[in-house]
Write the structure tokens for this entry.
Amino acid sequence: MGFRRLLFPLSLVISAAPCAAQEEANPVRFQEIPAAARVEAPVGSKVDAPMWESPASDPVEAAFDAVLFDGYAPDSRFVLEAALESGSLRWVPAEIERFPNGRFWGRIPISGRVGTALRLRMRSAGISPGQVVEIFGVETARAEDERADSETTRAQPRQGWFGKRLGFPGVISRESWQAAPAQAPYEPMSPARITVHHTATVRPLRSADSIQEMRLIQRYHQRGRGWIDIGYHFVIDGAGRVFQGRPEAMVGAHVRGRNDSNVGIALMGNFSRKKSQRPNRPQIHSLIALVRWLIVTYDIEPKQILGHRDQQKTACPGDGLYSRLGHIRRSAPPGPVLSSLGSRLTLPAWLETRLGATAFYDGGRIR
């Protein structure tokens, strides 16, 4: 056989979570396991030679007009395609956006109805032998106005709110991570609960990689899912840095049908894998500080600190993070917001020492 064929699900299935960049909203599943794969380019493969092909997926649960995915590959010379399971397979190639650190996301313009099954495959475009392509998650999507899930009708946002500096000390502004503008006006809300997520992908430690991850998540949400902006209000990277997403007093897009009054905080990382990666000390420390600030600022009750899975059928934020929410609630009552973080978030010395010069994220294979 001239290529290596890897089928779902195997030991190569590395994610049991639902949104990539992403916790997937409508994950493509194989034998009830969300799709993910690690494909190694074989020796002697030629351009256009197949590298991997999946069996038919489980029937999808919603109509769709695109397939979305994200992953990591140092060598970008590959093509990912999808086809509807039918008598004759018509393969549709993906449009892929790549980032300098090897991260990528893509969209395959293919449509199907409820109950449709999909096949996926990867072809070589000259990729070097031994290079690895990792797919973190695959989902179906349908272009829609994110506000279709709103619980109530709201007035227009206050003029001049967008771009205002947030009050949480040390937050990394949208300008600092080079966020794209929101594609429509936000809708105001009064925060009354907090939802904790994981991104179900990588956990960058260095600032430059975290900035690229923020930009990838925003592009995935805006250009892939068709939302007006990144869905989360705050995102915490592997070094404990807190990034501003949407302004926290504006409606987000992170829990379908329950976004009103709901502040979304996502921790970078995948906390649902078999050998579960767990949130590290800097992430938990920053999450507690951020939650305290939100509770004090908006008079939110600690019992309103929820996991995504408490409100929707999903594995998010993964067992490794969900198990820490009791500790987060107990730590949340008013106290020092940044007793040891200072005026800005920096990489702790113990973590800086451990990193060396080349680490991209901890808890995984990427270097």
